[in-house]
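Figure caption, in words: inputs first, then the predicted bound structure.
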Amino acid sequence: MMRWPRCRWKWTGVGDVQPLWSRDAFAKAVGGTLTGTFESPVTGISIDTRTLSAGDAFFAIQGDNFNGHEFADAAIEKGAAIAVCRTGHFSAGSGPVPRLDVEDVLRGLEYLGRAARARCKGRVIGVTGSVGKTSTKDILRVAFKPSGTVHASAASYNNHWGVPLSLARFREDVATGIFEIGMNHPGEITPLSRMVRPDIAIITTVEAVHMEAFNSVEEIAAAKAEIFDGLQSGGTAILNRDNPHFAYLADRARSAGAGQVIGFGSNEAADVQVVDSYLKADCSVVNANILGANLVYKIGSPGQHFVMNSLAVLAAVKIAGEDVAAAALALAGWTPPKGRGFRREFPLGTGILTLIDESYNANPASMRAAITTLGQAEPGPGGRRIAVLGDMLELGEQSRVLHASLHKLIAESGVDLVFTAGSHMEALYDALPTEMRGGHEAEAAPLAASLPGKLGPGDVVMVKGSNGSRMMDVVAAIEVWLGTG
Ligand SMILES: Nc1ncnc2c1ncn2[C@@H]1O[C@H](COP(=O)(O)OP(=O)(O)OP(=O)(O)O)[C@@H](O)[C@H]1O
Ligand SMILES: [Mg+2]
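Bound structure (magnesium ion present):
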């Protein structure tokens, strides 16, 4: 591969930057009409000038809040190799240069994504499911590292622009590509999976989330099964054996041409089965049978849900023919990202306060997982297990019932005290026994103001809610109070 000269981008501090796309391959894949001179290879793909690096190709995507065309000039000023814009948006003599004008910018990005998939020589894994996609994708990234180069979607880039963007960033010579595929509505996964064309398709689980767009959880299962529409012929489906929709999904996989279906979970019929697992203060220890071979391994964070995700991951490693022991060893170094179970310890008074940040996302499945994990945490001397919960959004008509019904698990799991914020969480607060009620606020902001002073040494505090519930503000307030924010 050509080595890109150091001089032009030395200031970025990233050193040598290998081209991602040659100028010709890029222009051929995206199509369109060129204005100005497009000479440089493309070293990255950007849709956001705030994170753009010199050498990136900038795609002026029309989003919900921003129109990328307004930033196209800035992209070129920041050193973008080319700006891809909609034909007719800029009149002759105006707009950024160099520029490729295309009929539809998102379509152009999709073409590039498809070209990346077509040229890739490695294996491709697609991950979907109602919950745990990003966590599983991140665990896959760590597990495949010992067997070669890995490319994975950034953050939760799993939608109509996130998937083609992640594909377009996929380098030709990478051994393993891992792509998150998500949906809010039926029919969204089919076109995305046909772009990704996974060799291995993982469905983490099927749960009643995003219910506003669905009449039943069966409809959600059907929408998740769309991932098989893109599965390579003879490819592998890895499915949650404990989920009631397993048989349906397995049938859908086989009729779509899957060569094999692997079930993971604690069910006796699972091909990848957890035999025992132990949650320690800072890790999970797992004894599992991975397609006939026994293995004991450690995951760098406690959580039964992470144990389940790791089974799907090790199944993928085994199916890919890679070293399962090396992958399992690497999992000891995995910790969840911020907002998804990220845990830290802070000195407080004479003891330690443990903060578990789950503020990025919440639905009944991940809420149950987080409460169970909190219940198994060991508080320090004098400490308590404290749940700080914001609304789970997009649950439709059943929302208040689904919130209130958490009270049973909370009481059984060993949580000592609960603080809540939001109108849906009020239903849970009212259902709790009086001694467990720490306080309720209409929204996150007043809770962020009042909560920190109520925490003490030894406490384990888990903060969780849907992103829109702004529970990250509560996390930030605790951090500031602890002097670390
Ligand atoms: N298998 C699982 N079961 C239940 N909860 C899980 C599981 N895996 C991860 N979680 C928890 O669910 C939350 C969301 O996790 P994650 O971001 O991995 O899900 P996602 O499917 O990618 O979500 P999104 O739809 O927002 O992209 C986190 O709090 C995480 O700890
Ligand atoms: Mg995600």
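Residues 133-134, 156, 158, 180 surround magnesium ion (ligand 2) (CB under 6 Å).
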